[in-house]
Amino acid sequence: MPDITDEKAEIILYGLQLIIGEIPKTLLLFGVSFLLGIGWYMIFAYIAITPYRAVSGGFHLHTHLGCILGSAIFYYGNILISKFLVLGNIEKYILVGLSLIFGLLMVSMYAPADTENLPIISKKERKTKKILSYIMLIATLAVAVIIPNQILSNILIIGTIIQSISISRLAYILTKNKYGFEEYKKQLENNA
């Protein structure tokens, strides 16, 4: 396709690699979750947390195996903790409040947290994703407050905490990731 630049071709290839990696990973996660008897919780967690994850970003693990294990820990760990964590109403409201404060702080500092492979360069897109991150965080925690099922409420609260951690500088350092937009700015400065 002669009208596609090398840069566009790289972006398309990266997108295809993500799709090809995501489909088997997702099927495996859901399949194992049903074998473990937590399939419906997995579906709920996946659908409920994905909007916040999609707009706030976060680190990526460098191999498909690492990604599968990381996703399993994220979702299965969240569900396991949620099933055994018993909170009274006061404790629930305190945890939601702390999660909200922590999440708002992380979003204000790091969202959208991109990667070197897929930097978010457009100022408009960055601003839109940051605003949507705030909205999704607040909406998810608002649902956690009003939902009567303790386990589902816990999944929402813990999911937002884990996701907020995944966009932090510490998470990026531990996983040897770099924020794509920061790296892009450095390259521009070096070329100037």
Features of this protein?
globular, mainly alpha, 192 residues, 8 helices
What does this structure look like?
The protein is mainly alpha-helical and 192 residues long. It has one domain (6-191). Helix content is 78%, strand content 0%. The protein has helices at 6-35, 39-56, 64-84, 89-110, 123-146, 150-166, 169-174, 180-191. α2 crosses α3, α2 packs antiparallel against α5 and α2 (39-56) runs parallel beside α6. The mean pLDDT is 90.
β-strand percent reads under 5%
**Helicity, as a percent range:** over 70%
Oligomer: single chain
Overall 3D shape: globular
Average of per-residue pLDDT values: 90
Number of helices: 8
Gyration radius (Cα, Å) is 18 Å
Structural class: mainly alpha
Helix/strand order, N-terminal first: HHHHHHHH
Q: Based on DSSP secondary structure assignment, what is the total number of beta strands?
A: 0
Please mark out the parts with pLDDT under 50 across 5 or more consecutive residues, or reply none.
none
Distance between the termini: 32 Å
Largest sheet: none
Number of domains: 1
Any chance you could write out the topology, listing elements then pairs?
Elements: H1 6-35, H2 39-56, H3 64-84, H4 89-110, H5 123-146, H6 150-166, H7 169-174, H8 180-191
Quickly describe the structure.
The chain is mostly helical.
